[in-house]
Write a structure and sequence with these properties.
2 domains, MetI-like fold, 73% helix, mainly alpha, globular
Length: 288
């Protein structure tokens, strides 16, 4: 009984109440833009600017007309953009997870001078702004024919390797070496040891890194815009940017509707998998 009273008293401390209020306000601030976009996706275009922060009423409510208009607008099918976004996201994430997990395992276990240099180069790549390399990257991608949804994952591998190698390396350093030694005694080579022993143990970090990479790649606009041939391939963010009428007029209602459609999959995915992010980060913490 005393422990319950102590927990209740601790919960009602003024500092905890203040923190609860502050973080509640911050949460509302973060959620507000999403709610505004959702509200305006059901308004006629002329009411989006004039009644931006008001709920749709009898005059402004457009139903699902904006969604239908956004999907059917222009000559480029919206569902093609959905397909290319899914294709790029899935292929890029699989490539990043496979290559960086193997790289991190090798760097952490060999741990010689060259491996340390490669590791710190991967970490350093996280602080290099994309704008510094985007023009050179665009030219290189055109030269090497990496400007399709099926080859752009190679470019994403380069940009996503820094964070992934950093997190995987931290996890590998916390793994007991005796497990791999036992597999080696049983006759497993390096490749078999990695796929049958190390990779299953890496599961928490794989899920965590996968979630972060999927959210980044799905919402990315600049890299596909610079690299892909926009006459043939458009991702969802690029498709939304081209949702314009004559003389550059933008249908804001249809634009809001497509933004909602593009956000829904990633919100559902994050809501289902968010608990794994903390687990993966904690599992990847460097020990010693």
């Amino acid at each position: 009984m005393k422990s319950k009273d102590f927990a209740l008293d601790k919960r009602n401390k003024p500092s905890n109440i203040i923190l609860t209020i502050v973080f509640s306000v911050i949460s509302v601030i973060y959620v507000l833009p999403v709610l505004v976009v959702l509200m305006n996706s059901f308004k006629f275009n002329e009411y989006v600017n004039s009644t931006t922060f008001q709920l749709p009423n009898a005059m402004s409510f457009a139903g699902f007309n904006n969604y239908i208009k956004g999907i059917t607008f222009g000559n480029y099918p919206f569902f093609n953009s959905v397909f290319y976004s899914f294709t790029i996201t899935i292929l890029s994430t699989i490539l990043i997870l496979l290559c960086t997990s193997m790289c991190a395992w090798y760097l952490s276990r060999v741990n010689n001078f060259i491996c340390k240099v490669v590791y710190y180069l991967c970490v350093f790549s996280m602080v290099v702004p994309f704008q510094m390399v985007m023009f050179t990257l665009s030219k290189t991608a055109d030269t090497l024919n990496l400007n399709t949804p099926y080859t752009i994952p190679i470019i994403y591998l380069g940009f996503g390797a820094g964070l992934a190698v950093f997190m995987f390396s931290g996890f590998v350093k916390s793994m007991p070496l005796s497990v791999e030694e036992a597999a080696s005694i049983d006759g497993c080579g390096p490749i078999r040891t990695f796929f049958q022993v190390v990779l299953p143990i890496m599961r928490p970090t794989i899920i965590s890194v996968g979630i972060l990479e999927i959210m980044w790649i799905w919402n990315d606009y600049l890299l596909p815009y610079l690299v892909l041939d926009r006459k043939l391939y458009m991702t969802i963010p690029i498709h939304i940017q081209y949702l314009q009428g004559s003389y550059g007029a933008v249908d804001l209602g249809a634009t809001m509707a497509l933004i909602v459609l593009s956000v829904i999959p990633i919100i559902i995915f994050y809501a289902v998998c968010q608990k794994h992010i903390i687990k993966g980060v904690m599992a990847g913490a460097v020990k010693g």
